[in-house]
């Protein structure tokens, strides 16, 4: 039994793995285990055994005990990037050690300052053969104290030779700047487990099963190493291509591109980048021409300890007050999106849990800067540990707040450096306050090495009309300050120092684009009809009454989606009926006589609300969210239905049910609504969002009882492809133009048509100029876009003949990839010019 007891390898606070601010560890992609926030500076053997591997950077060690359990101790996060600095390995691979023997010594302060986090996961990497029966969390543990008790489970043996099928190979060069260490090894294994084929990586005369992170790390693969991915089985080709695409993408760690990158690793709308151009993902459309201006944030150095607690407390109070004053002033101007984000920052600044944690650190002798940074880090760890994109956005907001307070503590202005007018802003990442704090009109466009297309910064850029590219990668750093740039966000490209004739061509295209947009805006209030006279309703997606005012000015013929979460988030109690009704009435008043489709609350495990007692979920996107959550809390549902039904004139507002997976959920909502309406005879349309494959496949059944259908392409795409659009390794492949998604949309349209129901699209594909011709060809008759895109969407629809769109749809449904489909649609739209 001794072999099945794993003891703490370092002194510190033991915590659940979910608190690790890294989805690879928190999501158990490496295996199950426990996290330790270390207070000691030496890693000790957690059991008797043999050292399987110790990373060249000295931060991670794997030991195998006599029972066969393989235990990885990974000191800190992103510590591989330190290249061994601050670490001193005390053993070598192959060494036989006893429980408690020292394995790695590290500089606690130096590593703590340089690393993303010091939290140290202790992982059972072969969790398929050992289950954790008991674990210690939520308390301090000392070296040698019981941390986990393992129970062997019988592994299911598999004879790969009996699977049949082909052998498929892909050869490429490792692009990861730190080689294949723990995090990429886990992600490669998770990718391979989606297939039945056996997948191995071969390097010279060595090979490793990619499902074993330990075996894969044991290859010691470095950047530039040539490898062969070898898959055997009936789905070998797909498995090999998927693993190759993941590795070639760099997984956010590559400094150079692989020699043979897979197509899926590139942005879905991008072919090969022209010479002198860099490729990225479009986060906000448009073209910008200007000179490169780098924004780099040099945060002040933080000391851990301070002698005068009262002085540090006063300094913290002064810094919080200064940042609060800055945020309050900034929140009085700008777009609705900007004001909402800054209001959230103000709420975080006054969060009692956050402030109390910082003050406790100060009282314990820590400096104000260290105390504030540590308090923020504790909160962001749990948010990022969820693996959910919307939690991660809140963590980004907290990081932004940490930066502002640390600058204020150092006596520096939290506002970013001044930028010359017309510049293209370049940064590794950008925080909301940095973009909001720029002088209006000082930036023509934005390009980021990292970042996501649905982040708060992307939302702000779109609201400001700034073209923006994200996920350009490490190659962005090659652009020198002052370089002449063309940022073509529509094409997903940055042209660096183009020739004069090339630049002139881009200027002409930019001028033409601006002229088209001006003409579209001038005709924005006209009714939307296609070139052949078919009526297509052009609505706007809204998140507040202010958005409704903007949408009306831009010619929206109604709202295809009112996101009611803006009323429910970032507060201690749910809004009552009167508050909700007032907001819905304000939206209806801003769009008089035009239909308003209000989506019922889409909240749940992925969107936290303190007043909604939902259990912690390992995968909240597949848990109690949307209509599942509100049906479980009928008081929320009934209050919201009463508020919507109270809007006047009666019937202007329609009700839409989110995250439908079965007809029974629609029936439950209708029963509640009918009971509220009673005998009044009020006629209110009740429709559904089609955002799960289950709803799309059974759209004909749902349409028999729903008054309308509206397709949410964002969630439908990620659920169909089983890819998180915020995961950098796969984000470029999360494309609603994937043939599987388009076939589900086609099935939804045919199911709605069978019962004479309107089928609309309120997801991101409705705001994609390449998506609109395909959607109309598939049978969609209502589009709901971002408010700012309404005029251009109307102008595009007016140029489209539906018979030609139907022919286009039939063609693209037979193509094999989103890349092929986008290329075909791009050729189609160019013929319209």
Written description of the protein model:
This protein has 833 residues and is an alpha/beta fold. It folds into 5 domains: 2-152, Glucose Permease (Domain IIA); 160-265, 2-Layer Sandwich (Histidine-containing Protein, Chain: A), CATH 3.30.1340; 277-295 and 416-516, Glucose Oxidase, domain 1; 309-409, PtsI, HPr-binding domain (Enzyme I, Chain A, domain 2); 524-832, Phosphoenolpyruvate-binding domains (TIM Barrel, Alpha-Beta Barrel). The N and C termini lie far apart (75 Å).
Question: What's the quick description here?
Answer:
It catalyses: L-histidyl-[protein] + phosphoenolpyruvate = N(pros)-phospho-L-histidyl-[protein] + pyruvate. The chain contains 27 helices and 34 strands. It has 833 residues and is of the alpha/beta class.
